Amino acid sequence: MDSWLDLCLLVFASFRLTRLVVYDTITEFLRAPFHETVVESLEDGKTETYIEIKGSGIRYWIGELLSCHWCTGFWCTAIIYAAYEFYPHLSMPLISILAIAGIASIIQHWLVKDE
Q1: Distance between CA 11 and CA 5 in Å, rounded?
Q2: Side-chain half-sphere exposure of 75, counting CA atoms within 13 A
Q3: What is the distance between the alpha carbons of residues 16 and 10, in angstroms, rounded to a whole number?
Q4: Domain segments of the chain: what residues?
Q5: Using one digit for the tens of pLDDT, what is the confidence trace for 7-43?
Q6: CA dist., res. 88 & res. 112, Å (int)
Q7: Residue 107: its H or E element
Q8: How does pLDDT run across 75-96, given as a tens digit for each residue?
Q9: pTM assigned to the model
């Protein structure tokens, strides 16, 4: 690792990529073969959404992995770090974009939380 700035970029890029894979709607197509989204109506009229993991064996294992931000975060971090180590000139633009987006999402969360 060359500097503290690189470490910060890797941290925020890993954070953003993990959220992208585990939670964001735009990547729902990645999770769809492994997750079923269930929406239940509650007695008070509100709805509750949760996922059920599909299949068995490797399909179930991947579904478990994709539903756990700790598990997916480890693998996203490993991929980002490997790209940083082996292909720094190619990976740094993507790492920088993910890091900036990660920081922006944290700021947005703080702003919305305070409203």
Answers
A1: 10
A2: 11
A3: 10
A4: 4-108
A5: 999 999 999 999 999 999 899 999 999 999 888 888 8
A6: 35
A7: helix 88-114
A8: 999 999 999 999 999 999 999 9
A9: 0.83
